[in-house]
Amino acid sequence: MYHQAPELHEQGVHVISTDEKTGIQALEPIHPSQPMRPGHPEAVEFEYERHGTQALIANFEVATGRVIAPSIGDTRTEADFVAHIAATVQTDPQAEWIFIADQLNTHQSASLVALVAQRCAIEVDLGRKEKTGILKNMASRAAFLQDPTHRIRFVYTPKHCSWLNQVEIWFGILTRRLLKRGCFASTEELKQRILAFITFFNQTLAKPFRWTYIGKPLMA
After folding, report:
1. In DSSP terms, which residues pair with 42 in a beta bridge?
2. Residue 44 pLDDT > 90, yes or no?
């Protein structure tokens, strides 16, 4: 899918690597850092106040390297993820979308199935959760969400292999460049700084990752 993404992008198909980064802390050191001076390194305060956390749901567009339609809030629930996917699709409502995600239960939920069915005008009986039909269990829901005939579909990484999801690489960039030594006096400031970083990243740093992993086993 990663190797096909540039060609699909030329055809108007969005290949999106998506996931959540939860528990992002708004930390504020109780004293400012002291700059380095001759013979002394920078002095960084190790005590800090906690001002709460935020959850980021990010979309890494594989073909361009841009982060599009991010969602930031207090929680990471099934409803939050469905709202995020709905807002993402709304940026190009008639296009084809392929979302690469891990197999977290919120990524294979009944409400996500309902959203995809509604946006793709799929008029079938979805059944009842834990009872019958497409909604019966995670396996039946995942099969529906992965259906290649759907205009909006999901491709899931294997279990315990979330590192295969390219957005995880971008989360590392966010951590190193903004979060690791950031000072945030509130969750609102944290949210706005993350959004500002995404704008900066898209304008100056965004490029596709050079994906070389081809699936060969690491050991014979």
Report:
1. none
2. no
Please count the CA atoms within 13 angstroms of the CA of 181 that sit on its side-chain side.
Answer: 8
DSSP 8-state class, residue 62: T
DSSP assignment, residue 124?
A: S
Q: Which two tokens stand for residue 14?
A: 């969005």
Question: Residue with structure tokens 């909604």?
Answer: 135
Kindly give, in sequence order, each residue whose CB lies less than 8 Å from that of residue 203, ignoring residues fewer than 6 positions away: none
pLDDT digit string, tens, across residues 141-196: 999 999 999 999 999 999 888 889 999 999 999 999 999 888 899 999 999 999 99
CA dist., res. 76 & res. 55, Å (int):
6
Read off the tokens for 205: 């740093």
pTM: 0.89
Structure tokens at 11: 């055809």
How far apart CA 158 and CA 201 sit, in angstroms, is 29
- Which residue bears the tokens 């008639």? 94
DSSP one-letter code for 168: H
Distance CA 50, CA 30 (A): 10
Q: Which distant-in-sequence residues (6+ apart) come within 8 Å of 189 by Cβ?
A: 26
Cα–Cα distance for residue pair 159/104, rounded to 1 Å: 9
pLDDT digits (tens, 9 = 90+) for 88-137: 999 999 999 999 999 999 999 999 999 999 999 999 999 999 999 999 99
Q: Are strands 152-156 and 48-61 parallel, antiparallel or unpaired?
A: unpaired
